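[Automated response] Your request has been received and processed.

Submitted sequence:
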Amino acid sequence: MENFLFSVNATFPIFLVMLAGWLLRHFGMLTQPFVDVANKFNFYVTLPILLFTEISAMSLSEAFDPAFFFYCMGATFVGIVLIWVLAVIFVKDKKMLGAFVQGCYRGSPAVMGVAFVMNMYGNAGASPLMIVASVPLFNIFAVLILTIHGDGGGFRPAQLKKALLGVCKNPILLGILAGLLFSVTGWKFPTLVNKTLGYFADMSTPVALIAIGAGVQLGEAFARWKPTLIAAFVKLIALPGVFLTLAIALGFHGDQLVALLAMLGLATTPSAYIMAKNMKNDDVLTSGIIVVTTLLSSITVTGWIFLLRSLGKI
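Generated structure:
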């Protein structure tokens, strides 16, 4: 019972805030323009500031663990490639291939990863390293996969170049790198600036969760139920099952496993829909995967936390 209560306390506050966002949207208090602006505000302002303030307060030895960093990078790369290869072999409707592959792997490690680790441990813990290792690969592979399998005329090097440039300008990664710079040099802002940054950092998680919840459209959940449920199984069960098992065998524990769970086993990111639509892929399937994984992840993530807690790994 103690482990179950720990798991519920670790996950349900996050999902309840998301539910509040959905209810506020349902009753007309929040609108789609709010969701768009809130997501942009969180991506460009509050989340980079949160990660900067967390990392700048660490020592360098705390901020960088090479083994964990390269495991996150390797798990991301291998997981995406494996899903891609299997999808090419087994998915019969090639028009949905790009959307299906992206839906199977692409989560929200920056937003949700930080939220879960901070809710459980009171700080960002291992999540910044996980973000640096996984987010660039998530974005680069998304461009490759959606370009190759979309209706936009096949692969174009210019789009890959644009993706790489976007990674270099990613505000979340820039916030992490700035935090590492301050951590290494020992630079400090005046108290006035630190308190101001702290107010913005405190807004990050609740604003992000409300926006995610408000963006859920239940009517799109089962437009294509079979590939949607298969993608949800891969995203929420298979992917974390394989790489969390291996991570435990390699000795990772605590906030590292929670960060890995956030990287591998949370809902498909809403930004996947925007990319799928703009790059002429199956946006209907993508929307369904986002909705179903968001709904089911409240159960599966609680289950993963309960299992890891019962095993004494977190």
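Summary generated for your ticket: The chain is about 80% helix and 0% strand. The CA atoms of residues 54 and 276 lie 33 Å apart.
If you did not submit this request, please reply to this message.
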